[in-house]
Input
Amino acid sequence: MAHRIFHRLLSIFNEHPRQGALQVQLKEIESTVNSATWKAAFLGALTEFVGFAAENASGEEVDELAVWQEAAVELYGASTEYEMFVQVLSVLLQFKRGGGLRALLSLPLEQRRLLVSEEQEEALAKG
Output
């Protein structure tokens, strides 16, 4: 289920929505089913999306991530349930904009691994 939601998120990303439209679409997906299982799948999809963006986003797509980050803060900034997603997305944006290892080190190890592999982190530390 989470992977199907991820593909919907990826489709939305490829549509390049503005922040307001993105917020509406995220809320629609989130509220499709009111169950703990659905919420867990939605969070899993958001996590998968961040991992995908870490590997694949470059150039103008990084600017698209800024729209996602702003929407995430607006929608979920006060929610402890989405705290990790909001924080990891924010750090990803800082990292992609040249923040380097310092940006990554603000995250716990397991969250950093969503963004970079151990080998990539070691290379950053040496470089």
